[in-house]
Amino acid sequence: MIALPPSFLHQLEGINGFDKQAFIDAHQQHAVTSIRLHPVKKSTAFIGDEHVPWCKEGRYLKSRPVFTLDPLYHAGAYYVQEASSMFLQHVLEQILPTKENLRVLDLCAAPGGKSTLIASLLNKSSLLISNEVIRSRASVLEENMTRWGYMNTWVTSNDPAAFSRLEGYFDIVVVDAPCSGSGLFRKDKKALEEWSEGNVQLCSQRQQRILADVWPALKEDGMLVYATCSYSPQEDEHIMDWLAETFDVESISLHVPEKWGIVRTQSNINTINGYRFFPDKVKGEGFYIAAIRKKEVTSQVKYPKLKPAKMNMQKAMGDLFKTEGVCFVDAGDDQYAVIYKQHEADMYLLKDTLYIRKAGVHAGMPTTKDWLYAHDIALSIDAGDELPSVDVDKEQALRFLKKEEMRVPDMKMGWNIVKYNGLGIGWIKNIGNRINNYLPKQWRIRMEITDADWK
Ligand code: SAM
Q1: With contact defined as beta carbons under 8 Å apart, do 338 and 363 qualify?
Q2: Which atom in ligand 1 lies closest to the alpha carbon of residue 206?
Q3: Atom of ligand 1 nearest to the CA of 112
Q4: Which residue would you say has higher pLDDT here, 226 or 326?
Q5: pTM (whole model) above 0.90
Q6: How far is CA 22 from the centre of its chain?
Q7: CATH topology classification for 84-294
Q8: What are the residue ranges spanned by the domains of the chain?
Q9: How far apart are CA 299 and CA 163, in angstroms?
């Protein structure tokens, strides 16, 4: 039985849609499990499961499987995401002026739920910067974005203050702010234990700091999407009021079908529209989201002059990727990465200002007589169709993912992408008497696998 702190319930009294008893009762139920399917990496995963109403690829699962033991999870066929937060899709579909040539920032991006969703919505001429300030979390973000496989999603790791130097660069900024986490009480016991009025206050101050830091980077008429998984008005409507009092903004009203059970809210002072999810009204956890337009005159950072690319690797590139209009860039440590050519100038601009953990898809490095393929290629949606590959069953896929010895009959010699249900999960090299496994060590499955799990 979950006992909600009385001071927490007191904070919620009077907010639109709050039904105390129904809310308490909903907290005695289990959290809902949901996933979002990859729109390009089609698979058999979760066919027939119930749809999340506000997100085309969202699915509710009847029970929670052990995702680690599903090779399709490792292939990026789906992302495990809380259903309410998939509402970002509905928001973006209404506010994006176009899907082409946008510059989008996901400022607080780890572990990658919102970023993988945004990547799925943009056309490849657009660029998504997926940022996470905390280093350990940024590496999880990088792994999840690599699995999702989009070339136009780059991962950076910077404090929000670093973005203030990119004046007027972004068309859309998403701030999924660190918060007191009350919306996740059903999923996360720690959030419940650590909740306090003092922490709500601290979060509220931090949210203002983050927004003030990133505000200059948003274009005039650009859109800010602000979200939290907290019910507290101090972290939601009050932040919107603070923003409206500090900057010149326009509130956006969204079309939201009433039958979805999402509660429309307005901030007290400046009537900024927001949308709140209560677990007694929706099939999902607690969430708040608002979209506003920046109305201030904002100048735009200038792109530096492009230095002509010196690397001529057309041959390797032709084999590796099926997409036209890409180019190699230096990814450090003798590695090369591939980005869309139209984002080359962005690369020069951003690397002067930000710490870019990863731009584009890592492609690997040349060796004296070979090409050392990067893991990313196996997961990229742009990987060349002609690349050698081998299909494996679940047991062999799990052995590969555990970096255990695997047996694959009739495999071609040399490099092969390991495919499960037609989706790449990594590289192996058949050298005759042995198979070398190129799955990065830090990606391997560490949990014990019982006899029943292999099938
Ligand atoms: N958007 C993510 C998703 O959908 O998977 C969840 C983001 S989580 C709510 C908030 C993130 O903000 C965390 O990853 C946290 O590390 C990061 N964060 C913490 N302090 C921060 C700060 N001062 N500035 C920016 N981000 C911060």
Answers
A1: yes
A2: 23
A3: 5
A4: 226
A5: yes
A6: 32
A7: Rossmann fold (3.40.50)
A8: 84-294, 313-443
A9: 14
List all residues whose CB is within 6 A of at least one atom of ligand 1: 85, 108-114, 132-134, 137, 160, 176, 178, 206, 210
Give the residue, by CA position, lying nearest to ligand 1 atom 17. Answer: 108
- Alpha-carbon dihedral sign for residues 15, 18, 24, 28: negative
Segment 273-293, tens digit of pLDDT: 999 999 999 999 999 999 999
CATH architecture of 313-443: Roll (3.10)
Sequence-distant (6+) residues with CB within 8 A of 223 are 95, 171, 172, 173, 252, 291, 292, 293, 294
Mean model confidence pLDDT for the chain: 95
Residue 327 annotated as catalytic: no
Considering only CA atoms, which of 49, 107, 108 is closest in space to residue 78? Answer: 49
DSSP state of 321: B
Model pLDDT for residues 172-181, shown as the tens digit of each residue: 999 999 999 9
φ/ψ of residue 185, rounded to 5: -55, -35
Q: What is the pLDDT of residue 149?
A: 98
* Atom of ligand 1 minimally distant from the CA of 209: 23
* Structure tokens given for 282: 């929706």
